[in-house]
Design a protein that fits this description.
Shape: globular
Radius of gyration: 13 Å
Order of helices and strands: EEEEEEEEE
Largest sheet: 6 strands, parallel
Length: about 100
């Protein structure tokens, strides 16, 4: 229906008010895409997530145009330790360690 999406987990775009809690993304094989792409979202919350097998050269999560958001860094297993690639984040975005 949509073809190949730009992320292997979640591609969230043009949304107001979404919470991602206790999510575990796991792959059977390596994937070159981000685990999550979050674009143009207001009131995004993310906590207690884990990501497996992300490709080492890519950030696990791509963030762009977020507002009024609270993000807790996920646990990343097997692969990179680059959490975020961020573009144009509003000053109301809080990223917690």
């Amino acid at each position: 229906m949509f073809g190949i999406l730009p992320s292997y987990g979640f591609f969230i775009r043009h949304v107001e008010g979404i919470n991602l809690d206790n999510i575990n993304l796991k792959l059977e094989k390596k994937d070159l895409r981000h685990a999550m792409i979050i674009n143009d979202v207001n009131k995004f919350k993310m906590a207690s997530n884990s990501i497996y097998c992300n490709y080492p050269e890519n950030a696990a999560i791509y963030l762009e145009k977020l507002k009024n958001s609270i993000i807790e860094k996920p646990i990343i297993y097997e692969g990179n330790k680059i959490y975020f690639n961020s573009v144009k984040l509003d000053e109301t975005v809080v990223i917690k360690e």
